[in-house]
Amino acid sequence: MSGYLGSYATLGLLIVVGALVFVGAFSANRLLSPSAPNPAPDKYRNYECGLDPVGGDWAQAQIRYYLYAFLYVLFAVESVFLFPWAVIYDRPEFGASAVVEMGIFVAVLALGLLYAWRKRVLRWT
Amino acid sequence: MTIAQDALQLPHLNYGALAPMLILFGAAAVGVLIEAFVPRRSRYALQLVLGLGALVAALIVVITESGTRELTAGAAIALDGPALFLQGSLAALGIVALLLIAERTLEPGGPFVAAAAVTAGTEEDRTQAAREDAGTEVYPLLLFALGGMMLFVSANDLLTMFVALEVFSLPLYLMCGLARRRRLLSQESAMKYFLLGSFASAFFLFGIAMLYGFSGQISFAGIHSAIQTSTQSTTLLYIGLALVALGLLFKAAAAPFHVWIPDVYQGAPTPITAFMSACTKVAAFGALIRVLYVAFQGTDWDFRPVIGAIAVLTMLVGSILSVTQTDIKRLLAYSSIANAGYILVGVLGLSKDGLSSTLFYLVTYGFTVIAAFGVVTLVRDADGEATHLSRWAGLGRRSPLYAGLFTFLMLAFAGIPLTSGFTGKFAVFAAAIGGGQSWLVVFGVVSSMILAFPYLRVVVMMWLSEPGESTPTVSIPGALTSATLAIGGLATLVLGVVPAPLLDLTNHAAQFIR
Amino acid sequence: MSHSILAAAAGQMGTGEKVFFWIFGPLALIGAIGMVWARNAVHSALFLVLTMLSLGVFYVLQAGPFIGMVQIIVYTGAIMMLFLFVLMLVGRDSSDALIETLRGQRTAAILIGLGFAGLVCTAIARAMGSVSAKGLDAANQANGGNVQGIAALLFTKYVFAFEVTSALLITAAVGAMILAHVERRRENRLSQVDLMKARFAPGNYPGPKPGPGVYATSDSVATPALLPDGTFADRSVSKILPTRELSGAESAPKGTER
């Protein structure tokens, strides 16, 4: 297994093994568990005692989740740019300049994190 | 494994010539730091000093570098005559707009909201509207926008141009939504601008892909040489040109893509409207003229009729619809659309004259329109600015000085001699006739005559009506707004009376390098 | 295997590529159709995730591993999750409006859609016929790999645009925080003394509230406790809960005694 797609074979194998483990675990559970369901009518109600479910299952999410997701997008983009940088920064032609370039890029984005920290965006209260 | 590893070489960066952009981006980053670390009280003064300092420094650097004619940063940025001229105009207009933005004496705290995240109309919103503090994020955003605009007019390939387009658009979308008064209107305008602007950006990007498909290049020089030599079908070229032009004409507010202008100009805080109407126009036309003159030279016969038709439509839509407006900000918005048409007429001269007259018009229009919006910020009642035209009746009796200034600016818009509006229109129309586009000039003159009507109606209303109960007061401007009005009014007058120095400068600058 | 990949670049498909294409092609299509079809906006978004993941695999197959991974990490991982949060914020139910706000919108949309489909089909037909695919292999070989090639462009020719991108990202971050985060002002923060004073202020009851009623037939938190005179104690039930009246079926034995 060499060549372009061959290098993804390991990944494919991992996915297959992962799926097998998942299926295996659940099958084993199924085989080993006793199968005598409780016939009581309310067995499968959400709450057997206590509060009846009222209204729908949807609740409005807090806007701070949005901010976290947004910061995550930013740093995902940044990390994507780090990959190509990581494969070439040590080439002799570049010297320190590639490091400086990436340093500026990361520093400017870190500014955003700094801003978020000072504005208490990162505090969960 | 013998792979031909090309020697990767960092491109040469001419830091001196790039300095205006670097200064603005650097100052904007420092501005964000100030927002994060400096106590609320002292932010305003610091940000104002930082912003003014950065813009003045950028202007000085542009002037000292004015002889530069080179491609730098791996030919991604062209610092030639038009680029440097437009960068200088952006810095100058940016300074004037910043003065207007920073005005805080007209209402406590200035025109910007303190906490934009507070829901509009709630109890908390009312208490914060009464408080005397205001958000200062608008200053770093302004610097980011101006830096992006400077890059936009000097970008020498479509990728850099697209990044610059986004860099200057994003702060504009934000700034539109930060008004202290009438916040829902302001947020609506930001939302509209953002949605339509994203569509325009998407079209621009799609056009880049098409042009890359045609030429295999995204640099303007590469596209130009592909047009000369390619034997392929030109379908992709024309689709690409149309989509890229659409993206740029959207920002420039040309007619079928103008629908956002009135709502956004009306809803945005007035100083931001002034900034947009001056600087966004400079940036958009700077980029459009570079794309048409540098990359698409040689396809003149194909794009000229189409863009000519757009110019005619723009002039007519702007002038005819401005007749029906009842709100001063919307009136100025439609007038800005019509002016985009006049600038397009100059662009279609497709000659050195066309280029220099466009540059000239952009500067004269920018100064006049900032001053006009500056006067709009002064006419206020208890609810903020009184922008309905009926409220302006009799204003000449209330405040002859500012009504007189506004009259002068309106006459400049109408193109009366001895104002910069006349010299600018004369220059673009002359360039169009020189380029054999007399039909555009006919429409230009007709639409100017239509457009004179709404301007003169405002003037007549201000001077010949009696001030009534509901006539608002004209606030006494603070030092910053006074400076804006003085600079804008003087520029309008001086460029109308002695336009020769600036015309010489634009003639000197009007040469692209490829 | 490597020569079959080179063949793929020249327009033929290798076996591996074929297998993956016929697995992920239908998945991408199902995702796209499901996105339009689903009534629930969250389900639509999840279908879109499926399509985007499949597209990422296609990019990888077509010798563009970098763009494939970006598609998966940024678009599917980050942007779609952001999109989901926005949907949760706006409300899942608010997307069900099927009323045309613009007259003739639906007709126009169908016509434009057909036109676009025609355009795409023409382009594909042309591409199948006269155009010979160039492939990415030559570009990938030039600098020793796909990622290296992108790095070579990013850090030499487009280095200025790359650096300016950071300005774009920080503007977006600051903008999101301006518009979505309410900074709590210092003077609005209550100290412990203030809280204590408010608690013992006249009109406020400083003690704990009574618990809900516990009965033989119901120990729900929504069942109010009884006061000594036999009336319900309103304070014993949280205000956001509807008061619970037991139905006959509920007060009957629940069948758990067996």
TrEMBL record, chain A:
Class of the enzyme per the UniProt entry, highest EC level: translocase
Superkingdom as given in the UniProt entry: Bacteria
Cited InterPro entries: NADH_UbQ/plastoQ_OxRdtase_su3, NDAH_ubi_oxred_su3_sf
Keywords assigned: Membrane, NAD, Quinone, Transmembrane, Transmembrane helix, Transport
Location(s) in or outside the cell: Cell membrane; Membrane
TM region(s), chain numbering: 6-26, 65-88, 94-117
Enzyme Commission designation: 7.1.1.-
Recorded catalytic activity of this chain's protein: a quinone + NADH + 5 H(+)(in) = a quinol + NAD(+) + 4 H(+)(out)
Pfam families: Oxidored_q4
One Gene Ontology term of the molecular function aspect: NADH dehydrogenase (ubiquinone) activity
Membrane topology: Multi-pass membrane protein
An example Gene Ontology CC term for this record: NADH dehydrogenase complex
Family: Belongs to the complex I subunit 3 family.
Known function: NDH-1 shuttles electrons from NADH, via FMN and iron-sulfur (Fe-S) centers, to quinones in the respiratory chain.
Name of the protein in its database record: NADH-quinone oxidoreductase subunit
From TrEMBL, chain B:
Presence of keyword Cell membrane: yes
Reactions that this protein is recorded to catalyse: a quinone + NADH + 5 H(+)(in) = a quinol + NAD(+) + 4 H(+)(out)
Alphabetized UniProt keyword annotations: Cell membrane, Membrane, NAD, Quinone, Translocase, Transmembrane, Transmembrane helix, Transport
Alphabetical GO biological process terms: ATP synthesis coupled electron transport
Residues annotated as domain NADH:quinone oxidoreductase/Mrp antiporter transmembrane: 155-450
Domain of life: Bacteria
Subunit details: NDH-1 is composed of 14 different subunits. Subunits NuoA, H, J, K, L, M, N constitute the membrane sector of the complex.
EC category name: translocase
Compartments reported by the entry: Cell membrane; Endomembrane system; Membrane
Lineage: Bacteria, Bacillati, Actinomycetota, Actinomycetes, Micromonosporales
GO MF term (any one): NADH dehydrogenase (quinone) (non-electrogenic) activity
Protein name, UniProt field: NADH-quinone oxidoreductase subunit N
PANTHER family per the UniProt record, alphabetical: NADH DEHYDROGENASE
Organism per entry: Rugosimonospora africana
TM annotation in the entry: 17-38, 45-64, 84-102, 138-155, 161-181, 193-215, 235-260, 272-293, 305-324, 331-352, 358-379, 400-419, 439-464, 476-498
EC number: 7.1.1.-
Function: NDH-1 shuttles electrons from NADH, via FMN and iron-sulfur (Fe-S) centers, to quinones in the respiratory chain. The immediate electron acceptor for the enzyme in this species is believed to be a menaquinone. Couples the redox reaction to proton translocation (for every two electrons transferred, four hydrogen ions are translocated across the cytoplasmic membrane), and thus conserves the redox energy in a proton gradient.
GO annotation, cellular component aspect: endomembrane system; plasma membrane
Membrane topology value: Multi-pass membrane protein
Keyword Signal: no
Family: Belongs to the complex I subunit 2 family.
TrEMBL record, chain C:
GO molecular function, one term: quinone binding
InterPro entries: NADH_UbQ/plastoQ_OxRdtase_su6, Nuo/plastoQ_OxRdtase_6_NuoJ
Residues spanning the membrane: 20-38, 45-61, 67-87, 108-128, 158-180
Keywords noted in UniProt: Cell membrane, Membrane, NAD, Quinone, Transmembrane, Transmembrane helix
Membrane topology: Multi-pass membrane protein
Record field: catalytic activity: a quinone + NADH + 5 H(+)(in) = a quinol + NAD(+) + 4 H(+)(out)
Gene3D superfamilies recorded: NADH-ubiquinone/plastoquinone oxidoreductase chain 6, subunit NuoJ (1.20.120.1200)
Entry's EC annotation: 7.1.1.-
UniProt main location, coarse: membrane
Signal peptide (residue range): none
GO cellular component terms listed in the entry, alphabetical order: plasma membrane
Pfam families reported in the protein's UniProt record: Oxidored_q3
Subcellular location: Cell membrane
Domain of life of the source: Bacteria
Record's keyword annotation contains Phosphoprotein: no
EC primary class: translocase
Job description of the protein: NDH-1 shuttles electrons from NADH, via FMN and iron-sulfur (Fe-S) centers, to quinones in the respiratory chain. Couples the redox reaction to proton translocation (for every two electrons transferred, four hydrogen ions are translocated across the cytoplasmic membrane), and thus conserves the redox energy in a proton gradient.
Family that this chain belongs to: Belongs to the complex I subunit 6 family.
Protein name as catalogued: NADH-quinone oxidoreductase subunit J
Species name: Rugosimonospora africana
Gene: nuoJ
